[in-house]
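Weekly modeling sync, notes
Attendees: S.R. (lead), two postdocs, one rotation student

Agenda item 3: backlog of single-chain predictions. S.R. asked that every request posted to the team notebook include the full sequence so nobody has to chase files. The rotation student volunteered to paste the first one in as an example of the format we agreed on. Action items at the bottom.

Example entry:
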Amino acid sequence: MFVLIWSALFVSVKGSIADTGASAWGRQQLCRDKGYCVTLSKRKLTAEAGLCVVIPCSFTTADEFTPKHIIWYKCDASPTKCSDDEIIFHSNKTTDKKVQSGFEGRVSRLEPDVSQKNCSIIINDLKESDSGFYQLRVTGVRNGQQDGFTFIPRVTVSVKGLNQKPTVMIPTLTEGQQATLTCTAPGLCSGSVPEITWT
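Predicted structure, as returned to the notebook:
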């Protein structure tokens, strides 16, 4: 069974940020004026290659802003904002902005309805090269005009080699009786089918 450390980030590009406290789950809500807030937990995640990682994320906006699309980027630590050639997920399937080829088909949202203001994503079939910095942008309409927010704090994902082992459940064996051995591969949320060999 895959044990996961979660994290998420979200903050606006302008305005002051206020920490409104932490819940019992250790998540903190960061806000700026006019109701733009994000709920997050830790800023660093660790995972193992071949498995998956979830970045949980939720947000609120001012009444005059209607969110339409969620965009996630993976980029270097240096720039304040990631660029369009660093997109790993875009909820607008008709956009001309392309997802990095190495992430195609591996990233999906946990909640497809943007109006629910849940920006959580899952990345399957992790590779060690997926280690890096992940940044969120939300686009939409404010007062009839196209608008968007890039949230400066980032999630740091660290992907290590696979160390988890499968578990095998062996019932009490009786001579001459049939028995069922149950094998569970690690990382049940992984997008790829595990290869199992019995010897």
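Discussion: group reviewed the output briefly. The two ends are 22 Å apart (CA to CA).
Action items: rotation student to repeat for the remaining queue; S.R. to check formatting next week.
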